[in-house]
Amino acid sequence: xxxxxxxxxxxxxxxxxxxxxxxxxxxxxxxxVTAMGWPEGxxxxxxxxxxxxxxxxxxxxxxxxxxxxEDIQRLSPAAEETLFHLHNRLAASGGRLLLTADxxxxxxxxxxxxxxxxxxxxxxxxxxxxxxxxxxxxxxxxFADRQLVPMADVIPFLAARIERSFSSAAAVVARLDRxxxxxxxxxxxxxxxxxxxxxxxxxxxxxR
Length: 208
What we know:
By secondary structure, the chain is an alpha/beta fold. It is built from 8 helices and 4 strands, in the order αβαβαβαβαααα. Helix 5 packs parallel to helix 7 and helix 7 crosses helix 8. The radius of gyration is 20 Å and the shape is elongated. Mean pLDDT is 85; it is low at 1-15 and 199-208.
């Protein structure tokens, strides 16, 4: 079978307010993030990779005069010191601080004791793993971001078979994109079945 070479081009991911999908898995977190008052003016938004933390943080930041620090589970020692001073400055000035992470601040391995104690006192809004409705909607969004139009039975087929996680939804759509492009075929249930059953040794990237 002849493969079509694909190019590694960036995705035009839709990040508008109308593109944020609400369900029982994230409604409480959305409500907390968009609320006017946070305890001590700070909030930690947590959830698994690909759950929409960055999307929600950007929507909130666009309508507020506030600071967002993302992925604080990856802070370097120097970044910890910077965040500590930023935290204190915002607390003194009455500013607001939104943090994102893959777990609650109390579970983070923060080396700087003063910062760790401040983060542990931060209110937490958590996005849970997707429910069935959200998983299907996330699959549909990933297809749309990649300008793919799957056949009507593809999303229900995938949702019933993949792990119920945001990362699994992103991975299977990326795999289908590469396979459909390489073979110049539509995204059908048959192609989805193959995508679930093979590691797909296909060049990464896209060309659309």
